[in-house]
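Hello, quick one for you while I still have it in my head. My current little project is about how a certain protein chain folds up. You're getting the sequence in one-letter code plus the fold written as tokens. Would you mind checking whether the tokens look sensible for this chain? Here's the protein in full, and shout if anything looks odd to you:
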Amino acid sequence: MYDFLLSSVEEHYEVVKELKSGPRGSVRLLRHKETGKRFIFRTYQGNAEVYRKLLEITSPHLPEILEVGEKDGNVAVLEEYIQGDTLAALLKADVFSQKEARRLGRQICAGLWALHALGAVHRDVKPENVILRGNQAVLIDFDASRLVKEQNTTDTLVLGTTGYAAPEQYGIAQSDRRTDIYAMGILLNILCTGRHPSEVPAKGHLGRVIRKCTMMSPDNRYQDVLSLMEAL
């Protein structure tokens, strides 16, 4: 399937531009030669298990995954192109109100709920990985995602973004859905203050929600995103 997907992309699509490139892989914006419709094509070194799971579902807060190929540790994914700006780009202009941060937070949680229902954890929730499509937040980029394996005590590969990664992502324990809740707390604080909660903590009710999200021990955080959505 991996080789077939690569040849299909080469035959039927043209590269509009390269969006991201690094040691682990690349992300390209493609245009279908006949229809003109745009798609995202990503290649990376890792495991395709989460992307395969995402083939089974649709959610307004996750991109539709169309095709997945894997061979010798190399993964190729063709997915829906989400038209819009990332939260990281929007934050360059101004921060969001607490009301808007709560609204966006609930939408991202809805995407995480669909992902967690598959037994997966995102592990890299941050402003760069959320696109605002109109008024709708869409969580993207599952290259660092993994399925939670009950028999494991730690992650097999340490991945995540400094500042957003929970303590357990550094080899202390296995990441699970509460790992994403930690990152959600950081994200919510940055949305409304522009700063990490260790620097400028949000005030009021949202500040209390963020503090619970970012507790060092996973047992002291919200235990699932539904609980976080209710708190928001």
In short: Residues 152-156 have pLDDT under 50 and may be disordered. The beta strands are 13-21, 25-32, 38-45, 65-71, 74-80, 85-86, 120-121, 130-133, 136-139, 146-147. The radius of gyration is 18 Å.
